Amino acid sequence: MVDHKQKNMRKTLLTAGIMAALTLPATAQTYKGTVGRTLAESTEWWQQPTRAPQGAPNVIWIILDDVGFGASSTFGGVIRTPTFDSLAAAGLRYTNFHTCGICAPTRSALLTGRNHHFVHEGGFSHISLSAGFPGYDGRIPSKDGTIAEILRDNGYNTFAVGKYGLTPDEDATDAGPFDRWPSGKGFERFFGFLGSQTDQYQPDLVEDNAHVKPDGRNLNEQITDKAIAFIQAQHKAAPTKPFFLYYAPGATHAPHQVSHEWSDLYKGKFDEGWDVFRERVFENQKRLGIIPATATLPARNPNIKAWNSLTADQKKVYARFMEVYAGYLTYADHQVGRLVDYLRESGQLDHTLIFVIIGDNGASKEGTLAGTINRGTLSRSLPEEEAVRRNLDSLGEVGTPQGHNTNYPLGWAQAANTPFKYWKQDANAEGGTRNPLIVYYPKGITDAGSIRTQYGHVNDLLPTTLEFLGIPFPSQIRGVTQDTLQGTSLVYSFTDRNAPSRHTEQYYYIFGARSVYKDGWKAEVYHHPDILDLSRPGGPDTSIHRDYDKDTWELYHLDEDFNEQVDLASKYPEKLAELKAQFETDAKRYNIYPFIDWQDVFTRKFHKTVLYDHP
């Protein structure tokens, strides 16, 4: 007599086993057949194809470059970003989200879910900007796998376009090795550039594992075309298979290059100058609830002149730089809009989880006090008056294919970072590390258009994505045991705007500038002057020997003073001591030591007798 209850149970267990096999990474499956002396004595078994969890959405991570907190209209800026506006209106805006202060560290933390020194990206992967120490050799270990590797092994197709920035220079030829190219870090298709910056019309362009010739169009248009092509081909072949796209344009990193069609949209819009810009953005941010209603605007950096004190030539030159930058940002938003439109038209948008990080650090201070157009025609050491004269003579080249190093003056960097102090590279300051985040997923976000103030960091996006998809963090990737994550999932905040922050402690360090955050308090050091301290009148000063022990620590209570205006170091010495001790612990735990700053990088040769090659 058949026991139907047992039969049904066996059927249920068999089905569960098959489904489990379909959702496990291919590398985790062990052979389940039996091998005898003959076929009759053997049981055949085939490895099951890997499948993503049932109903898993597509995932897109978008990260822009060098934008600044107060630039986009989505977060109170006066530069139009209608695509980001629409995504935010249907999603969530995070106003307390953080990056690492400069590009490669941010991208390494983002892709791995770990702190940047922990994955060896304390500086860059470039030969001249890396060092032969565990926190600085620029080689992400295999034990610190990327989001692309995890999703690839869980049934996703994985694509990347735009800026990668994490391939060591010595590996970045067509001879490889390719294990530290995007293809070696989990991306099945790649189109973009491996370095930190490139010309937007003649880029150092790579497709998959080979350099290719650019076609003369702006790179942002090309990477968008490729992203759409990758998705189209995949969707045609496997319409139910989800994809992960890492979309990382060079915009708005220098060179600021965009056609007149876009830069002329802002003709005359910045003639009132950076002081008016800051005030206008600050009021917009209050009106939108981006910043507290009781907030005050920090004073203009003392090394930046009041706009009304500038000469007519200075105003003309500086305003044109900002017109180009603004057009470049709006153009980048337009290209993202093309991608969003394709997903909508192909019926995929409602099934796509999108994260947008508007900048991998604060706005760039690398354009000097007067702005730059071309290397070779403008030295950083020129007096501002001479730099302005040269820029005026070449003003027609700003933003064009001939403007190979177009970057705006420092005054506009502070304006783009409204309401914060300082800028890119300053890992001590919110102006260097606080960047806007948008989370969009219409099926899973019911509180559309609302703001989140929970503390977050780029290393949070990997665990956030995995939790939302229901994919466990793997103990191994392709046989390599994985190290711990430092990021914290933000999923808890998707449905609860008042939930307390779960990411409660985070360090920051870039070339001597350093800080540590814990439970609403932050201790920080603005380590200066350095060899690229362009905020100094007359340019950088390399004659002063810096002693890290003589650096002055500051203390801020960010819960009450979010843009760091009231230094409480003398009032709460015990809290300062506690945070300094926390930084010391982090420095040892995450490979921050030895301290390295710009002067070390540019005046000392790091002899690499042995290149780190960690498994």
From TrEMBL:
Residue span, Sulfatase N-terminal domain = 57-471
Which GO molecular function annotation, any one, does this entry have? metal ion binding
Residues spanning the signal sequence: 1-28
Q: Which InterPro entries match?
A: Alkaline_phosphatase_core_sf, Sulfatase, Sulfatase_CS, Sulfatase_N
Alphabetically sorted, this entry's keywords are: Calcium, Hydrolase, Metal-binding, Signal
Q: Transport: present as a keyword of the record?
A: no
Q: According to its UniProt record, which protein family does this protein belong to?
A: Belongs to the sulfatase family.
Q: What is this protein called?
A: Arylsulfatase
Source organism (scientific name): Dinghuibacter silviterrae
